[in-house]
Amino acid sequence: PMGMNDEKMAKSKGNVIKLENLTEESVSPLAYRYWLLTAHYRSPMNFTYEAVRAAQTALIRLIATVREYPDGGSVSHEYQGKFQSAINDDLDLPKAVALVWEIIKDKTVTEADKRATILNFDAVFGLDLGALPSTANEIEEIPPEVKALAEAREEARKEKDWDKADALRKEMVERGYEVLDTPDGIKIRSI
After folding, report:
1. Could you give the CA distance from residue 37 to residue 83 in angstroms, rounded to a whole number?
2. Which region, left, alpha or beta, applies to residue 90 given φ > 0 means left and ψ of -120 to 50 means alpha?
3. In this predicted model, what pLDDT tens digit does every residue of 66-98 receive, in sequence order?
């Protein structure tokens, strides 16, 4: 069950969140999915944009970390066992997500094995982490969250809302990206 502002969501109350509401607020659908994974399906959730944006920040950190790891590793049997236990324990996805951050901190697991294990977990999570380039030397893919921020900035500029445009640009910088206005349109690059 999900609520908003501590009230149950319902069409009749007009407090239902749609995909376009998320994108208007520069929130990626994958960030919303990640947020949903952080609570047990039997637990009530209270939707706030602040909570989903925090999940988006965590997802961006996860994406950046996985991108740095090299290919060629093997799935850790130890972590795969813990993951299976969490999933088999009434689909304890929050515990499964916590394992991702646990393996990232584990100095006894190689980075290549961390990548292989996290991508194995992602078959359940559905966060599409495997679509990311494996090294920084490959063509950079801008995360969808950052693209959404750039698009929202463009809209704000068209509406001459300079304060909002500047705030969105600053948010991109905080996430490690800058937007350049060129004669061919906007360009986004990491900084």
Report:
1. 14
2. left
3. 888 999 999 999 999 999 999 999 999 999 999
Q: Which tokens hold the place of 134?
A: 């494996």
As a whole number of angstroms, the distance between CA 90 and CA 73 comes to 29
Predicted pLDDT at 83:
98
Pairwise CA distance, residues 109 & 59, whole Å:
21
Residue 136 and residue 64 in contact, taking contact as beta carbons nearer than 8 Å: no
Cα(151)–Cα(157) distance, rounded to whole angstroms?
10
- The stretches of 38-143 forming alpha helices (DSSP H) are 49-68, 77-88, 93-105, 111-125
Token couple for 116: 């292989």
Angle between helices 77-88 and 111-125 (to 10 degrees): 20
Predicted confidence (pLDDT) per residue in 24-68, tens digit = 777 788 888 999 999 988 888 888 888 888 888 888 889 888 888
